[in-house]
Amino acid sequence: MIKDNPNPPSDATAPHNAAHRAINHYLNPLEKPRLPVGDHGLFTVREGIDIETLLVNASEDLESAQALASHLAFEIDGAPRSVALGVCRILDGIQLLVAKIMDHKEIAVRK
Asked: How far is it, in rounded angstroms, from Cα 88 to Cα 94?
């Protein structure tokens, strides 16, 4: 006769113990990983990049994020739409600040 389920393991507590080891490995590690000194984030900016390049990239990234939030705002309704529109306005304000800094830098370079 063919059985639907395989034979249970001879040691019925083995899966239970394995599950506890896995949970402890992820939730209760013996030693927490440490970040190298001075490294506080996932991403870094390469040293030696000029301010104008950084501002242009920040401006383009803000423009992309604003386009995403704006598109989302017109796809949804209710309170989530208000949140998305609020994000759009915040991004617009930051975009204006970056543009103003770039204008000041351009004026300083001309003088």
From this structure: 10
In whole angstroms, give the CA distance from residue 21 to residue 13: 12
CA dihedral sign, ordered 97, 103, 106, 111:
negative
Asked, for residue 88, whether it belongs to a domain, the answer is yes
Per-residue pLDDT band for 107 (boundaries 50, 70, 90) equals low
| Overall domain count for the chain | 1
Burial 29-47 (b: 16+ CB within 10 A, else e): eeeeeeeeeeeeeeeeeee
DSSP letters for 58-82: HHHHHHHHHHHHHHHHTT--SHHHH
- Predicted TM-score (pTM) of this structure: 0.53
Domain of 74 in residue numbering reads as 51-110
User: Residue 102 falls within a domain, yes or no?
Assistant: yes
| Closest by CA position to 84, among listed 61, 64, 60, 67 | 67
